[in-house]
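Budget justification aside, the reviewers requested a transparent look at the raw inputs and outputs of the sequence design task funded under Objective 1. We therefore reproduce one unedited record. The lines immediately below are the structure tokens for a 362-residue chain.
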């Protein structure tokens, strides 16, 4: 059934009801209940009890309210500044990011990366539509619901444009994601990922890299999840385990593997090989600068993931070479007061690896 703002509805699977405030997407609306809260609800879980009337117009914006007899001249279509969602540029080869969900912080003034307003984007670099919830951690240690909605496939959404002074608040939080597509080879599990980015990174020009997601604008990019690391449905995962008896649904809970999990060597420990041959199958046509960019991008993603998911020890294998990658890593690590680093075991790695000890800040 199609619902529109102002319709009074009742919940099918629970008591109570409310009034439709807005349509989130083709299969979900926002319902305002008596307490004043808005609840995202599937339309399949609602029953209409009173269509929108005069009171329904209160939920429409000024451009949507009905007029009785005064003819209205259609205005020119609004330009993209009022539309938070836009397509991402076509993915290419080389330095293109893997298929997945990303957060990006992009300065509006690309000539002055360390000052001015910053655009915060949710990037959906997948073939599925997504529903998302976005939370920020406040000074009291609680999580404030900041935004929710949907992002079409291969699109980006401008969550907010923030002043530079608010970067610290906007670099620590949680993102939750649900995937939807008309045709699915497998149904993916929901993703719930924390993110925490050290504030000083936003004041280092080296932290900003060109990204195809934003038409090569420079941005700080954080990987929420890579699609090939997101598990499929609970039943499929169990069936893939050999010689394993089915368990009740409540007996196990699955969460998406973190990016660092693919390099896990022990609980809370990981080993990441940054040799370009371990990161790219075909790198023969890459310049030294492109290779270093890919290696540092992997280092930053894995370090951020290790911090977010409370890893305590990570070894990064940088190789010997001319020392450029090692120096770039050390320079970045000097920005972290809660990370110790030293040359990793000479017997195992020679002079080609660095060991990080990550202290937990409670």
């Amino acid at each position: 059934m199609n619902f529109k703002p102002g319709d009074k509805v009742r919940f099918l699977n629970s008591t109570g009801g409310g009034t439709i405030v807005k349509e989130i997407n083709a299969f979900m609306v926002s319902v305002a209940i008596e307490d004043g809260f808005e609840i995202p609800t599937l339309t399949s879980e609602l029953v209409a009890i009173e269509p929108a009337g005069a009171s329904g117009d209160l939920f429409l914006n000024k451009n949507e309210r009905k007029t009785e007899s005064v003819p209205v001249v259609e205005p020119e279509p609004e330009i993209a500044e009022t539309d938070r969602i836009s397509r991402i540029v076509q993915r290419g080869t080389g330095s293109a990011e893997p298929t997945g969900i990303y957060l990006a912080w992009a300065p509006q003034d690309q000539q002055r990366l360390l000052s001015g307003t910053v655009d915060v984007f949710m990037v959906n670099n997948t073939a599925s539509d997504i529903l998302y919830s976005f939370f920020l951690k406040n000074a009291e240690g609680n999580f404030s619901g900041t935004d929710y909605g949907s992002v079409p496939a291969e699109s980006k959404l401008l969550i907010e444009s923030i002043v530079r002074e608010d970067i610290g608040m906007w670099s620590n939080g949680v993102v939750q994601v649900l995937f939807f597509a008309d045709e699915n080879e497998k149904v993916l599990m929901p993703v719930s990922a924390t993110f925490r980015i050290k504030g000083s990174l936003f004041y280092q020009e080296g932290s900003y890299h060109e990204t195809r997601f934003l038409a090569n604008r420079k941005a700080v990019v954080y990987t929420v999840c890579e699609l090939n690391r997101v598990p499929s449905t609970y039943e499929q995962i169990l069936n893939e385990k050999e010689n394993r008896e089915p368990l009740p649904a409540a007996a196990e809970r699955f969460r998406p593997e973190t990016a660092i999990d693919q390099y896990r060597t022990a609980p809370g420990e990981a080993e990441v090989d940054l040799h370009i041959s371990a990161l790219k199958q075909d790198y023969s046509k890459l310049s030294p600068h492109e290779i270093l960019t890919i290696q540092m991008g992997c280092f930053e993603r894995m370090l951020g993931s290790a911090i977010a998911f409370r890893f305590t020890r990570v070894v990064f294998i940088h190789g010997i070479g001319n020392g450029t990658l090692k120096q770039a890593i050390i320079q970045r690590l000097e920005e972290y007061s809660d990370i110790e680093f030293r040359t990793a075991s000479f017997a195992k790695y020679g002079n080609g690896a660095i060991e990080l000890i990550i202290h937990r800040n409670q």
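The longest helix spans residues 288-308. The domain at 80-257 is CATH 2.60.40.1600 (Immunoglobulin-like). Computational costs for records of this kind are itemized in the attached budget.
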